[in-house]
Amino acid sequence: MTNVKTGITLFSLGTPYLKGELDLEGVIRAAAELGAQGYEIVAAQMIPSYPYVTDEFAEFIRQCTEKYGIGPICYAANMDRGMLKDRDLTEDEMVARAITDIVSANKLGCTVMREQYLLSPNGLARIAPYAEAYNVHVGIEIHNPDSPITRPILDYLEVIEKTGSKYIGFVPDFGCFATKPNKPYWDRALAAGATIEQLEKCARLRYDEVPMDEAMKIMGPDMAKCPALGATLNSMYGFVQFRKSCRAELEGLKRIMPYCFEMHGKCHYVDENLHESAIPYEEIIPVIAATDYDGFIVTEYEDEGGYDAVEQTRRHVAMVKKLLNEVK
Amino acid sequence: MGFAMRMNFVDVIVDDSFKNYDVNGKKMGYQFDIRLSYYRGHFLSVIDEFGVKVDDFEVPAERIKFCINGKEFSPAEFDKCYTEFWQIREPATIRVFYPGGLPEGEHKIDVTLFFRSPYMPIGPDHMYMPVDSCGTKTMAVTD
User: What ipTM did this prediction achieve?
Assistant: First the structure.
């Protein structure tokens, strides 16, 4: 039987944190008030001794857990392959960084770590013994434009199954199931002078899976009149791409469920009726609820539209809880 | 610099941080604070372009010290600073050697700062998303 818990990545409250309206303790308190049962922390955003965790910081987090009743469940790592000026990090160097992150995750009390795809499948296999020793389940984030059925993800799957380790797997981000254009990007293009007709034309090209260079050519005359359309079309084929149906992707999700340690409940805009404008949660949640997944769906509000971060996060948590209750 | 991503939450140049500083009882130069325009911190080695102009005059790089983590770095050293992490909520202090200090009153500061987002490749051969963390502000200098 499924045992889905709802959490929040503190990244969702990034805007008030970065503006200084909330400090880290304030962000954790807000997450508890919004109904989270646990939280993810983006290490490079909120850990003051990054990439290390000092005794002092670990103690601060423990005290927050006592005060607010929720603690860190996932350490979100970054794989900064391009951090050196003149060359990419080697696999050895990336493995070394990932091990440092595993040690830090453990020190905070996290049993899950989000890793990024720049760590190769072989690199992921290499860190499995460390993940196991430290009891930190390392999941590669599956982020749009990848999905559970794209080649790079299947390459990880092969390695995960070959190693047989229970400590390496995935963290899917629901953005990869999008079936509608992203609202903040759409609204931004409108504000920059694009017309509804032009945007609908872009969306149609994407729905019809017209190759991107061809779509760019077709939209050329419109882009000459409204340059903002270039960025819109680009995004529709990139990080916020969408398709007519996500059925095949959801079948892929079922296949990898045994290896999923956490899920990112991505949202860009949830309306007052608790509906995400581009990502079909009504289809996604029942698929997860039908498995024996025993982990968190972590709300990840990405502030692209300038909506109130606290309110958007609150709505998203409420939406996930509502949909989970409906399938019970 | 061609296209660069911009992710801005606060002013790059921090209000009320502009002042002359003393060494041995004499004004040795001026300083101000800057914040990184992004959602997470970075190692200094990701900085690809850095410069400061005051009242439209380019400050020679060797006169600049970039101060974080209780240390001071020159722009020529950034590429070696791959273990120096600049926290996203911590301002860096930019200290400029300028004996005598700036005359009192308002001055225009322009900071040019472009960095690579090192986990966002945009092509082969070490190509990463460029991010714009430039800032401009006219402020009064204090002693």
Answer: 0.95
